[in-house]
């Protein structure tokens, strides 16, 4: 919640945080953490998708088109989203 407030402040009043280097450092660390979490989520979704393809490849039940689209849209959203997707 604090990050969101500071991000809005930085967006609408960019020079307001210039005197506070510790706050700027805090925001950078949070943004890096968010990116790491998003990359982990992408890797997990890709692993799930691969496992679904492997486990269903020998049966008659293949991954249907809607399942594939759902996973792909999630992957695409994570890859191309802004730094904070907290909403």
Structure description:
This protein is mainly alpha-helical and 87 residues long. The chain has three helices and no strands. It has helices at 2-12, 21-57, 65-79. Helix 2 (21-57) runs antiparallel to helix 3 (65-79). Mean pLDDT is 75; it is low at 83-87.
Q: Count the E strands.
A: 0
CA radius of gyration is: 19 Å
Question: Total number of helical segments?
Answer: 3
Would you list the SSEs in sequence order as H and E?
HHH
How many structural domains are formed by the residues? 1
The fraction of residues in strands falls at under 5%
CA(first)-CA(last) distance: 11 Å
General shape: elongated
* Category from helices, strands and their pairing: mainly alpha
Q: State the low-pLDDT regions, or none.
A: 83-87
What's the helical proportion of residues? over 70%
Average pLDDT confidence is 75
The main pleated sheet reads as:
none
